[in-house]
Helix-turn-helix domain containing protein
Amino acid sequence: MSESTTVEAVSESESTRARLLTVAERLLLESGYDAVSVRAINTAAGMNPAAVHYHFGSKDALVAALLEDRLAPIWQDALDLLERRRRDGRVPCVPELVDVILGPLGELAADPVGRLRLHLLARVVLGGHRLEWTSRWFGLRSWTELLRAARPGLSEREATERWSLAFQLVLQFFGDPLARTPRTSPLPLGTLRGFVIAGLAAA
């Protein structure tokens, strides 16, 4: 296979993945996670019945790729900056960590499509779906390292458990996963911010 043929094949594969993500997002936002099947995604995208499994492996993997593609860029730069500061010995404080999360999520919650994405994220994460994330910021390890830098007295286990509880609360707050539709009422962000900071920074 020539180099040009390989490039064309990669480009076509990326185009197919992008189309599947776009169609899947529309269906998931319209009908919810449980109501959308792999078959429905393939059909709506005009693909063969094996397309989702070929390109992603499973419905859960497709949803993980979708959420990372849509949400990770929103806070990536700010998180990378905090990580560089930590490596340079300039330790971030707990309020900075919390603001890096809540600021972008607050902006998403003010937008109808953003609210739907947060709702979907909360449904799949708090619903116990086994998603395989590729972005390190969707796991807890990097968050644990940042918190331990800000609070050196915390063990790795304690820092991980605090983040786990914090993210559950944040997803519940923004995503309202038990509701049939996303939350539309104003959110008391100041109260949430203070609560999360206190929980992460507690002695």
In short: The first helix runs from residue 3 to 31. Residues 102 and 193 are 7 Å apart (CA to CA). The mean pLDDT is 85.
